Structures are given as structure tokens and as C-alpha cells.
Give the backbone structure.
Amino acid sequence: MSKETSLHGVHQDLGALFTDFAGWSMPVRYASELAEHKAVREAVGLFDLSHMAEIHVHGAQAADVLDYALVGKLSGVKPGRARYTMICDAEGGVLDDLVVYRLAEEEYLVVANAGNADVVAEALSERVQGFDAVVDNRAETTALIAVQGPKAVDVLAAVTDADLGALKYYASVPATVKGHEVLLARTGYTGEDGFELFVAVEEAPALWRLLAEAGEPYGLVPCGLACRDTLRLEAGMPLYGNELSRALNPFAAGLGRVVKFEKPGDFVGRAALAELAKADVPRVRVGLRGAGRRAPRHGYRLLSEETEIGTVTSGALSPTLGYPIAMAYVDRAYAEAGTRLSVDIRGKIEPVEVVDLPFYLRAGEPGHRPTATLNGAAAPHRKDPN
């Protein structure tokens, strides 16, 4: 039986269509996933992310244990900031990709994907042995709500006294939202500006309702997993189980930048990753642009003439761009932007072209390049700035 978040009743009242995701009953859409996607790109959307896992690591050697347990240098993160990183096995395979918040000098919050919650919690509990630190899994007592979109600041400004202008991207601050104590983080998985609010599970329904009410003047709509997937795909953000897995290492995934060999001491997977960093990566992650209306999907074969040279990992008809997009792993010889390939879509061969990631960039941010969008404007792919 699927687990339910503390917001399940709220979603039922809103008429959500549910799906099982990583053992959780989650809203896949409410009225229209296209309308929800558009709201996040043009106004603001509200997401329940309470299926994610929140694992606290605290103690005198909290920084040391995370430097050992993860591939990133978490000791270099300042209190109040966050970092995107990964946890790998001894062979360098990716167990999960994570966002880690440093809450205080001796306290961190590790946020893991729902499907890997137990794996990450168990790995951290094993790796903390011998360190003066404690791993405290608070997934059962913590809810997570996201407010994403260009009007997210307006919504939060109406309900909190927190200095939103001073809250940088990949930063967090304890805040009060109409009497609810939350950890307010400027992070997200949509390619838009926005916030994620960590709150006690018993307070989540009331918090959701007050955010929804505050967002009404700005066109806020509740959003499900379907639009969350198309939003992150447009932003070129990997999804564990699609672009990331234990069979892949960070270098194979094109995310070798997260591995920090310069940090002192050993870390799990260091020796294997050092060898992998020297090796040629046979296949690389690329973006694909399709023609027509049929989108490549996960698992579809990529061809150069009649030779299979790769596999699609995620794909959809982009609501923002109006054409099919996909991410895929292809042989290095075919990874250059502009390379023309074909994809086998249920027995029909369709043309695709290799393009740079991300597909969608918001204007006004580093890395901006012209990209057609719903409004003819452009937008940034927001990366961890650390």
C-alpha cells in the first residue's frame, strides 16, 4: 500500500489524480498538467514534495563525516548555504544525488530522493561510525512544500517577514510564515526562481492553504508530478532512475564537477572515481530536439543510420518550446551539437538533432542564451552556484 503525505487529504479535496511514485501516493496532476506547467513558467505553482527524505547530520564532526560520506566538500559550505552533491558506492556508482544544506556550524540537512531514502539513510548511518556526529532521519516528521515561478517572491513576501531579497540562490534561513516555523530555502527543480519550505508534518496542511490563498492574486495553481517532470526536463536537470543510477558514475553522467578530489582525506569511492576520471567516457549525456509532435521516451533506441548509438533517458513534448525534447546517452562520436540522429519511436523512425543542454534558460541570469519560450523571452538554467 502506498504511503500518503500529510497533504493527501488536501490533494483529494482539490480533485487531484494520484499515482504511485517511489512507494508514495502523489498527485500527478489536478486539472491540466499543461496549465500547471505554464503557471510555473509564467506565474507561480505550489508543489507537495513531502515524499523526499530529510536526514539531519549534527555534531562536532558533522562536516568531516559528510566530506567522507559524499563526493563533495561539504566542510567548505558556509552556514546558511547549500550544495548539490552525490553519494556514491565504493566503485563510484551513484547511489543518489542530493542537496545538502548547512544549517549551522555543526548541523547539516541532507535531502534525498524518495526512491533512495532508505539507501541514503543506511549509507550515512554506516559511514558516520568512528566520527563524533549523529545521523538523524527526520523524513517521517518533516513535510516539504515548494513555491516555484516568477511570482514566487510575491507570494512569500505576503506571508513572511524574512528578508527574501537577501536570500540567495542555494541558501536557506529559519523563518516564520504566518505563525508556522519553517526552514525557507531558495532552491528548486523547475528552472525557475522559487522556494522550498521545510515544516513539521502536522503543520503542512495549514501552511499549504495559506500559501494557496496568498498566491491567488498571482495566479498560483497546485502542481503535480507530471508538470514537475516536464519542467525539470526543459531545465536539463537529471532524474535519478533516468539520467542517474548506480550503474553510472558522476563523470559518465556529465557531472564530474561535483567530485572534489582536492578535499583532504579519504572519501567513499575516491580511489575508483580517480581512475574513472582518467578514463574515456564511452557515452555522454546530451540534449535532443525532435521534429513533429511525437516525443522520444525513456528507453527508446537512438540510431545513426541503422547502427544503435544511444538510448533516450527522458523525453516529452515541451510545453514551453512547442517541440519534442529529450535527454539521452550517446556514443561520444555522436555527441556534438548539430549531429543528426534518428530515434525508434515504437517502430517508426523519427529524426532528432543533438543540442546543448539545458533546453530552457531564463533571462537575466548567468548563462543566458536566446531560447524561445511561452512569452518569447528566455530563462536561466539555475545551477548550484557553489
The domain at 3-52+141-234 is CATH 3.30.1360.120 (Gyrase A; domain 2). Helices lie at 8-13, 33-42, 62-69, 117-127, 152-157, 204-215, 225-234, 270-278. The longest strand covers residues 94-104.
